[in-house]
Amino acid sequence: MPKSIIQTNNLTFHFGSFKALDQVNLNVPEGSIYGFLGPNGAGKTTTIRILLDLFHSKPGQVKLFNKELLPNKVELLGKVGALIENPSIYKHLTGRQNLEVVRRMIGAPKSRIDEVLKIVRLTDNANKKAKNYSLGMCQRLGLASALISDPDLLILDEPTNGLDPSGIIEMRELIMRLNKEHGKTIFLSSHILTEIEKMATDVAIIDQGKIMYEGKLDGLHSNDSGQFLEIKLDNVQKAIEVIKELNYTISEHDSKTITLPISDKTDISKINKALVQNDIEVYQLKSTEETLEAIFLNLTKKLDQ
Fold it and tell me: pTM above 0.90?
């Protein structure tokens, strides 16, 4: 069983009377890409700021590398690289000069600059001023800054925010290479569910400061039925009544389509038979695996009920 790189124990945090985090328990395995999912305002950035000791937790609530954060923060945070929201970049300096500023601050060897430029694929643009960088190049330069110290853990807060499709793909591939080829454990905060689904080995879903799920991505997909049935038909309102009489729950519907969770394929024939017997014309039946987006919406809706 891999050891934990990040552990939180009933982490609770208030802004005045507002409870931003409510007994948050996280367990980030070594070597994982850990997707930290939640809508805007759910508590993701607050959690990250606490992990970096920018906001202060209570004693015993946060461990990094199996040690208490507060009494060992200088040692522990030296093993952590972070990219929080938009990277701080001196636009009048070149990419290489920006990295030199960071290198001097932390006392890393000069050779590390060329190493990280190669990792983030900015070698050819290293001597170009940052004001001429695209947004994707700026994000990669920010990530290069986080890598200067050769950290064991990378904490990334919405690293694909605002990027165009090609920039998102570049960042995704870079994150996966850092994990597989360079052995980095990556804590990745995002609200872009499709990106997390393509990268993460483990996930946590947070909403309104509470953890709704934590564990393996595969476990999340099997947490419920895992299958949905999409039906296209001619009379949605009548079909809804028939389906509810069969004790099925409808997830969503529009003027032509009904979607509902099913347990297995026998449900498909049962529902289709009942619809036909009630003179409802069925145009299409399609069974699909439950997407991360559907799971996410179902979990966050439960909290609102």
Answer: no
